[in-house]
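batch_manifest entry 22 of 60
target: Phosphoglycerol transferase I
source organism: Halomonas lysinitropha
requested by: lab member K.T.
priority: normal
notes from requester: please return tokens only, no post-processing; we will run our own comparison against the previous entry in this batch. if the run fails, retry once and flag.
--- input ---
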Amino acid sequence: MNPLHKHSPLHQPRWWALLVIGLWLGFSVATLTRLPTWGLVPIAGIWLLLARWRRWGAPSPSRPVRPIWPWSLFPIALWGLYVYLADSFGMVDLGAVFFHLQAGMEEHGGGDRIGAALLYTLSMLLLLASFTWLVRHDHRWRLTDRLLALALLAGNPMLYGIGQRGAAIVTEDGAWLERRYVEPVILEAPRDPPNLLLLYLESIERTYADRDRFGDAYAHLKALGEKAVVFEGVRQVDNTGWTMAGMIASQCGTPLMPAGLLHDSQFEPLGHVVPGVDCLGDMLDERGYTLAYMGGASTRFAGKGVFYRDHGFDRILGREELEPRLEDPGYVNSWGLYDDTLYDFTVEEIRRLEQQDGPWGLVNLSITGHAPNGYPARECRQRQGEFDGVDILYSVECSAWLARRLVERLEEAGLLKDTLVVIASDHLTMRVSAWEQLVAGKRDNTFMLLGQQLEPRRLDVEASTMDILPTVLEAMGFVIDWHRAGLGVSLLSGEPTLVEEHGLDTLNARMREETALQERLWEGLAPLQGPPPPAEPVVEQVVETPEDQAPEVPEELP
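--- output ---
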């Protein structure tokens, strides 16, 4: 070997360590900003030029190598976790993390994430080793290590969010949302209440309707919207941005605030999901509805089966129940059934429900649009051509077409007479191939109603998915208290929503400070602390504090 090669940069551990640090720095900046992925290259280059100018890591005869462990290793690892979550989901939702840890993550379909997680872990180990080498060989980095550790901890958004939740315990007003919660009450029901078909389209937000950005990916849902009541402007508030949270927001009128320490056993999955509130299923069950849930994924994941069992549903059909009925046992994805198969079973289930006495309700959850790439069905591949495995707009178009075809099949078969059809996204999508276009402007959820008694129209609103519950109840002909249910307001009533009155920023800020509503959601799960206290005399509740006594409900019933 040429002796000169031993002194080239590639044969010096210093430059390998600096390169790893630079690439991680560039990748982190590109991930947490709107820079394209290739933006990591110039950032890493700037880092290496700065390192060469400052001679970082260069040996100094007067400063021997010290075998120490840097204080910054743990803070760097925490930042690595945050960057991984941001790269995987687009936005890091601590509520989702806490809820899934407690509700259980068995039978998840994120097998494709395991490989990415292993690569992240390997690269993080290389980063920690590289930083350790730099600190041991450069006394300047040793001197600043503790200060850097403190800065990294203070600036980590994950720790900031945890600190905000901790501060809620001692906040001056932890019941702002609780005072605005209206217990769902049906005052009057129609003589012949309609059936209900609620189709959740996984991650198919209405933002995709913008043809300038997304072409015709949403065209089939637009076509359905021509004969529906379409709501534009249904935003996403915190703690409603994943599947279980989205379903609870739209069926219970509340955000899904994780149980936290209210959980009866911190080391076992939840035995109940939001047992302290009545939801859509509870109210329909009380009025004689036969209720069913269908989804291609496992109902054991994230407490879906527990939630529906707790809230009035008679039949809960997920992967475990439906997969044995497949004609082709190999036609499944990592989550479960493809949606063309699921919708075939949905038609069969509705035929069964139609043969029973009394009204029925069916909630259906698709999988086609699931981030990051979607799971387009075989029938879509035959219709749309080859799928490259990445393009989310291909999957969006597939999901929209399958939903439209399902509704048309049911209409042609006469299975939607006296039925309200609700089509909604469960939440805004997480990081996908069209992420930069999605976050370039305001985003909103899909929400439309199809029914014989509803005049097709478009309503421009400022609302959230929590407003879906009262809107669906009124569209079904039920009279509800004050046009409200939970934190939601019927979008058919003309009454102002919480988003209109207070704005998303205020709602999200209050969410981080709320404790009383969280306690209501998980009532009954708090660990017992000795015998219950003696009953106290009932006193009239003060529902407003002086600073927020603005009238928020009418003084008289309309």
